[in-house]
Design brief:
The protein is mainly α. It has one domain. Helix content is 89%, strand content 0%. The protein is rod-shaped and about 100 Å long. The protein starts with a helix and ends with a helix.
Length: 82
């Protein structure tokens, strides 16, 4: 092999390796961004929305128990029985 061919091959490998590193870094940054967004949404739902839903559910259960259970009208009961 001549020196020019060896240098061209070396530069080709260097360029391919550099482009591979750039591609891998882009892919990993996209994966990291998706994971970050996912954990952000999960954290928001878990620590902001879920407690509000739980408190609302508890309030409904307390109100239902204070009223004496579930009550339906006579017409609704006839409709269910038919």
């Amino acid at each position: 092999m001549k020196e020019g061919d060896m240098l061209g091959t070396l530069l080709t490998f260097l360029l391919v390796g550099f482009l591979g590193l750039v591609a891998i870094s882009i892919v990993l940054s996209i994966i990291g961004m998706l994971l970050s967004v996912t954990f952000g949404v999960v954290g928001f739902l878990l620590f902001k929305v879920a407690p509000l839903l739980f408190v609302g559910w508890l309030v409904l259960k307390v109100v239902e128990r204070a009223r004496g259970g579930r009550r339906i009208s006579a017409s609704d009961q006839r409709w269910l029985d038919s």
